[in-house]
Every structure is written in C-alpha cells, then in structure tokens.
Amino acid sequence: MELIPLSLLLSLSLSTILFLLFRTSTARRRNLRSPPGSIGLPLIGETFQLISAYKTENPEPFIDTRVVKYGTVFTTHVFGERTVFSADAETNRFILQNEGRLFESSYPGSIANLVGKHSLLLMRGSLHRRMHSLTMSFANSTIIKDHLLVDIDRLVRRNLDKWTGRILLMEEAKKITFELTLKQLLSIEPCEWSENLRKEYMLVIEGFFCIPLPFFSLTYRRAIQARKRVTEALHLVVRERRVEREKGVKKNDMLGALFDSDCDDDEIVDLLVSLLVAGYDTTSTTMTLAVKFLTDTPSALAELKEEHEEIRKKKGASLALEWDDYKSMPFTQCVVNETLRLSNIISGVFRRAITDVKIKDYTIPKGSKVFASLRAVHLGQENFEDARVFDPWRWQKISDPANFMPFGGGPRRCPGHELARVALSVFLHHLITRFSWIPAEEDKLVFFPTTRTQKRYPIIVQNRNVVG
Fold first, then answer.
1. Which residue from 434, 426, 422 is spatially nearest to 464, judged by alpha carbons?
2. Terminal Cα distance for the chain, rounded
C-alpha cells in the first residue's frame, strides 16, 4: 500500500477540523433564539420601507407596525445590514450602559464615511473615554456659566437683530447654532467663510441616511464631495493655528485642547467634523420645533411668556442673560424636556454586539448590529400618558424620568447636553420677549433623514416694540 504524503494528511486533518468547527458553530447559531422579524429583499432588506415610512406624518410607523407583529425587540435588515431593533426602555438602558463590555459603537457606512474614522462617534475604548472627557470639559456647567453663556447670548441677539417680516425659522436657527459651535471649537466669529462652510455642512448631513454607494445615490455623492470641501477648509484652519501656536499665540478653545492632546491633523479634522455636526444640526432643529409646538399650544406659549416677562422686568435695561436668569426658568425647562421628548432629533443609537447577548427571551448573536430606538420609547403610551401630545406640564409631575433619554446614555451620552439646554433657553427668552409671530403657511413634520419641518417652518415676525 502506498504511503499517504504527510502534507495530504495535514491538509485532510485541517479540513476536517474546520468542517467540524463550522458545523458546531452553525448548529449553535441555529439553537440561538434570535429576535423575530423580517429581513426583506436581498441586499436592500427593508431599507426602502423604513425610508418611506418616516416620510409620513406618523413619527414611528416602521417600528409601530413591527412592534405589533413581533414585540418590542425585533429583527430587520436596513442600510445593508441585518439589525436588531429595540423599542423597549429597559433593553435600551441595558444596551447603552454596557458600552465596551457587551456592545460597541457601530454606525451605517453612510454615516461613518461622512463623519470620518477618527470621529468621536466611532472611537472606542480608552481613546473614546479620553476624548469624550475632553469634549465634556468644554461644555460643562462651569464653563458655560463662566465663559460660553456670554457668547450664546450675544450670538442669539446678534441674529435676532436682523429678523424682520417673513423668515424661515429653521434656517435662522441653524445660523445661530453653527456660529455658536464654531466659536466654541475654533474661536471663529461669524463671517462669509463660516456661512459658506455651513452650507457645505448641510449637504454632508443630507447624506447620512443613504445607501453608501456614490453611483447609486446622487445625495450621497454630493455629501461625499461636500465633506471633502469641509475637510480642506478645516485643514487650512488647523495649519494656520499651528503656525500661530509656534509663535506663542494660544486660544482657549477645543482646537487648542486638541493640540495639547497630541492628535495629528487628520484626527483633529475628523473630530471637528463630527463635533460641528453634533452641535449644529440637532440644537437648531430643537429650537425650531419648540417654537412650532408652542405656536400650536397657545396656553403653553402664554405661560412661557409670563415666565420670561418676569425675568425681563427684574433685569431692567440689561438685555444680556446671566446664569441666575437661566436657573430661574422652571417652565422653560419643562418646554425644553417636552420638545426633546416629542421631537426626538436623535431617533436612536447604533451598536454592535461584541459577544452573544441575552436580552429578554432572545439571544442577540455576536457581531449583530443593534439599534436602540429612543424615539419609540419616548412616544410609547406605556411610558408617557398621551405620549404623542405636546404637554410640557407633565414635567412638573415627573420626578424620576427613567424612560427619558434624549441625549443617549452610558459612556456615550452626548457631552453637549447641558450646552444644548442653555442655548435653547436663551433663544426662547429673546424670541419671546422681543417678537410676536404667526405661521406664514401650513407646515408639517417629517422624520427622515432626521426630524424637521417640511418647509423649514416659515413664520412672520413682528417686533413687539413696534405698534402696527
């Protein structure tokens, strides 16, 4: 009998081992009870159903129908990947609190490509903890009180000074928040350069929830091109600031802190891109929707006016708000909370399971994409009474808002959450004490790619000091 070559024996042995491992792994996967659901069409999955559903006036149609059919934790396939959706408050808290242990940040390719691989959104582990802490150090209550509040107040009043007649409120709010974010991050005052950069950013954000194939999506292709122009502009700023720094000129802003953290220019630019997106789009949309909800709820607007007229009366001739003024706005904070709850600018967060995870009666397999829907919890009737009605007074009765997570939670909770609240409160104060307004035309909410009004909320403003 011929001898079998050693190489063949080794090859057969390796093949046998791999086969047994594969069969064992496959059998184990079959034994796992994954959340029920549907994965739709090959490659596309249920992406188009998701997009079309969010273009309706119902804020949560995609999730609503699947919760009825499958329960609050279900499986779907969106943006090129099989994804487990959670519309359950307890499950969402579990996912967010187990960042780094059971789950890690993982976003669709469209978002990841546009914010950049070094963005805070995609960082993990000790690097994320360090940069998240650094970002928070520029947006905590002490910094806002001692440094940022004066800029917030000044920039809000500067923009409102230009308002007259018919305006698109969402556009005006975006100018305010972009100018504020640029000031905080780069010490740049409003100018033609900043306005051109803002317009490029709008194109970038429009590409966040597209299929990430430039040949397939014109919107995504435009977003990629706009991102290139944005990064070129920011690289120029970073280089100029490094030259200034070498000459001994230092500025107390986020860019200065990033220089001290030994990040290279590519890392700094990616961080700035993601921080500008976070500070610009979400807060401005919340400002717009707060005004819309108040306009549609006259009793809430009347009570808010009363609160701010009282503050104005105490201040006399002084226009600029101070920290004590901000802390004396209890009903304003109810309005802020209710706007955040009902609008859900951040509809949810994406994570990936880094091990098999037991949730309720199911197992989420290792490697699975997970979406914790914050909006579904905020709009769930089991969590909030009359959940889809704007009712700021509910926050006078809620002492432990455990199901309220507008800024996410866990180690990745939005570092600018207090700054956003202050900016919105200051904006509402100056708007209410200086202007009356009416809607210029009917407008409605849409929820894709992000929550916003369809027509950018056109209103007609009139200075309250003008009798007409």
1. 434
2. 110
* pLDDT score of 2 more than 80: no
Q: Quick one: DSSP state of residue 449?
A: S
Show Cβ contacts of residue 106 under 8 Å, excluding neighbours closer than 6 positions: 350, 351, 352, 369
Q: What is the spatial distance between Cα 207 and Cα 217, in angstroms, rounded to a whole number?
A: 9
pLDDT of res. 29: 46
* Closest to 427 in 3D by CA, of 314, 306, 288, 307: 288
Find all residues with CB under 8 Å of 138, minimum gap 6, and list them: 184, 253, 254, 257
Cβ atoms of 190 and 158 within 8 Å: the answer is yes
Read off the pLDDT band of 27 (50, 70, 90).
Answer: very low
Average pLDDT over residues 91-98: 94
- Provide the 8-state DSSP code for 262: T
Q: How many CB atoms lie within 10 A of CB 331?
A: 17
CA 435 from chain center: how many Å?
29
Express each pLDDT in 169-189 by its tens digit: 999 999 999 999 999 999 999
3 contacts: CB under 8 Å, gap ≥ 6: none
pLDDT for 250-259, tens place per residue? Answer: 898 999 999 9
Q: What's 42's DSSP letter?
A: T
User: For the residues 245-268, what does the mean pLDDT come to?
Assistant: 90
Q: Beta strands 348-353 and 103-105: pairing type?
A: antiparallel
Backbone angles phi, psi at 56, to 5 degrees: -95, 175
Q: Which residues pair with 462 in a beta bridge?
A: 436
3-state helix, strand, coil in the chain (%, to 5): 55, 10, 35
- Check pLDDT > 70 for residue 289: yes
Q: What is the C-alpha to C-alpha distance for residues 116 and 268, in angstroms, rounded to an integer?
A: 10
Asked whether the beta carbons of 225 and 207 are under 8 A apart, the reply is no
- Which of 113, 103, 56 has the alpha carbon at shortest distance from 80? 113
How far apart are alpha carbons 37 and 68 in whole angstroms? Answer: 11
Opening angle at CA 126, ends 115 and 356, nearest 5: 85
- Cβ neighbors of 161 (< 8 A, separation 6 or more) are none
- Residue 74 is encoded by which pair of tokens? 């279900």
Please check whether residue 415 is in contact with residue 378, taking contact to mean a CB–CB distance below 8 angstroms.
no
Which SS3 state, helix, strand or coil, does residue 182 take? helix
**β-bridge pairing 81-86 and 369-373:** parallel
pTM of the model: 0.87
Angle (CA) 453 456 458, round 5°: 115
Supply the mean pLDDT for the chain. 87
